[in-house]
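Chapter summary example.
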Amino acid sequence: MSSTLTPQQVNSLIPQTALELADIQGDVLLGLQKFFQTFLFFTIEDVPSFKEHLRTNVVGQVTTTAEVRHREFQIRDFRAQGGNERLPMIGLNVGFTQQGIDKLVPALNDLQDTSFKAGAAALAADRNVLNEGPIPILPINDPVDAAGLPVWDAPYLSGEIDGVFLITGGTQAAVDGAANSLLGVLGGSVRSIHRELGSVRPGAEKGHEHFGWLDGVSQPAFDPNVATPFPGQDVVAAGRFVFGATDAPAGRPAWMKNGAFMVFRRLEQLVPEFDAFIDREASRLGLDPVLLGARMVGRWKSGAPLDTTPLQDDLGVASDPQTINNFDFSHDIAQRRCPFSAHIRKTNPRRDLPRDQLDPRRIIRAGIPFGPEVSNAERTASKTDPASARGLLFVCYQTSITQQFEFLQGTWANNPGFISGLAAQIPRPSDPAQIVTVGVDPIIGQIVSGQARSSDEPVPNYPIGNVRSSLHFPAIGNAEGLPAAFVVPKGGAYFFVPSLRALRTTLSNP
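The structure predicted for these 510 residues follows.
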């Protein structure tokens, strides 16, 4: 698992940028190369022993952003020479919960992020509006049980997760071997709590999540010297993603430089139920199911955006990095091309908001699908087999969990009134009593029991028209037993992903 690059080689690969790429863990900005990925959640049993192993045996194996960038060049050259097989590139990163940092260095008990300190389980269950900043942050709204706890898998509620190792590679056997080797090195200093295995979907579905849409299409750029932005890809200050860079939150301890906060979420996807819902709603609305799905997401499954090609897919647009993100919503104030409630417009409302309101909310995503492909029996029954759970191991990086991930989920995706100011500009039908309500994000938006769940404008009014329409979601606890949401949170945790310098010094200092 050890790096194949000498320090001199790493330094020679670093572009002319203020970012210290050899000190930033590799998944944060560019993303570890991954066909398979294990998330190894652990608790620290012997603090002095763990620190010793971390400093002497583990840090040297951690994959940096400089190495990730170099590997991209290796892959490009390998493919240009006709190579098709997967290169054996094992990646390793590590992050710690507040609890884990408290064990390693008790004096570092406040990283100046209220959400990180509280933890993911507490915030997922909390129904209070958070008045931190000029705009209130609405609740995440994960479903809770009668005791008020998130309806999550047991490991995420155990209170034992001190940290996570991210281990990536070209085959499951290689990743499993690397994980077992790492645990062997650490010995009794840690205890494995839980493992999650993600993998890229097979064949033509590579790069697509389980509902079928191309994933990870729209990422923010952060430094043109590291990666050249494509048209429509906004360059956001790197301090939104790593501490110590421009626009990073102020007042953080110096040792946090080049680190980032990581949000992990296990999101199960009810694929047969989702497909059946689209078919039922399309029939009710007199709409093509493929178009309805695109209206819910804001893109066709290929990745082509509705804003560019509103009525039919265009594989030419989807396959060209110069066009797939070269759009914004500034000319679509009547949501004729893309509904306000569409997933991509809720989570990245390009030019619906000015840049100074949009940039502070951006995140870098680095998730991976998990679980098997849908079986024929599941498709026939329109019901997911509980033994075949599938979905997304969602990961994102930011320097404020509160103002970035939680804001995106609560204040934008879950908020039926988000972007309602633009809705006032929509041409009205003759009946003034018909009020446009944006609704929730139909893919990831969550509501609490007792609230109505809806999303506006599934029927297009492109290029002209004033048809008002809304999706009819099953109610929570409906008599038919239909799911009220098709993305179900089943676990989560908040981590701090330190710099290599911090791993060698502050966090492993005996």
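To summarize the output: The chain has a mean pLDDT of 92.
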